[in-house]
Amino acid sequence: MTGAIMDVILAEVEDEIAGMMCDSYGNYLCSAAFQACSPRQRKRILEKLSPQVAAIACDKRGTHALQALIGLLQLEEEQQLLMNAIKSRVIELSMDPNGTHVVQRLLCCFLPSVTEWIYIAINDRMIEVAHHPYGLCVLKKCISQAKPASKHQDMLLKQLARHAMDLVQSPYGNYAIQHALEEWGGNCCQPILHKLEGRMMQLSIQKFSSNVVEKLFCSAPADFRDRFIAELVESEKMSVLVNSNYGHYVAKRALQMATPEQSRALLEAIKANLSILPNRRLRVKWEKVMSGQGDFDDDDVPDTLKPAMPQPQKASVKRRSARPRRGRGDVGVAEQ
What we know:
By secondary structure, the chain is mainly alpha-helical. It has a domain at 197-302. It is built from 23 helices and two strands. It has helices spanning 3-13, 17-21, 26-36, 39-49, 53-57, 62-70, 76-86, 90-94, 99-109, 112-124, 126-130, 133-145, 151-162, 164-168, 173-188, 190-196, 200-204, 209-219, 222-234, 238-243, 247-257, 260-274, 280-290, and strands at residues 320-321, 334-335. A two-stranded antiparallel sheet has the order 1-2. Helix 18 packs parallel to helix 21 and helix 21 (247-257) runs antiparallel to helix 22. The radius of gyration is 24 Å and the shape is elongated.
């Protein structure tokens, strides 16, 4: 299709383009038309769309067409034009079931200099965003897209560390901390590790934070890991860990990562408290841990202990579901 033909088409539909992007059939036409546009024509479309971009992003059909357009914007001028239209609505879009995918698409496709507004907005309201199922998806995407040793990574790391104790105990926020450890590694995340040090027993007996403790054992540098495991071994409250519904998961991971000396001490501490454990089913789990056979899945978790958390409403966009884990507080957070 020639540029002249596209000019004719745009002249006819440009005033209705926002409505067409949200139409059952029109959104497909728009997605195809955007691919045939020149940079000059795309700029013309963006100028028409700017006042309505946020509404389009939150529409179950408009989000598809807008994401298609975002993927085609290569020039910084084009990207900045679209970003200017939504930079004051970043948080609102991030927590919308359709808008969240637009923000994530921006983070993946636009230049870091253009998406800085997203990092700033998410960082300033991290707690609110991290506690929200769709907001969490955007925060995780920010973590993934932040370049090593960049100012974006630095600002996010400082805020994650500042709120580490709150986040690790949150049904959604704990995934932000785990994702940072996975993406950036334990050495980079030492500010977070310092904030959690001294709290291992407290965190090991809770549904959500116990997942983070396991991740710490796997990701933390050796010196931190030794100190974290030592907190459990040397604690006078081992009976609390043994009586908790989640402690055996942590203990199993600790035994996998501990030094031989720590393993012996941890096994002795567990054994000393096992005889007074009234819950027979829980005692069987601990015995499996001590024998090295502790391999638990959802069938091992009583129905009363499986998460009864509100699942986020599914948006009408294609995306990959989060990988389910063993029923210890996982939530169906959708990601694109």
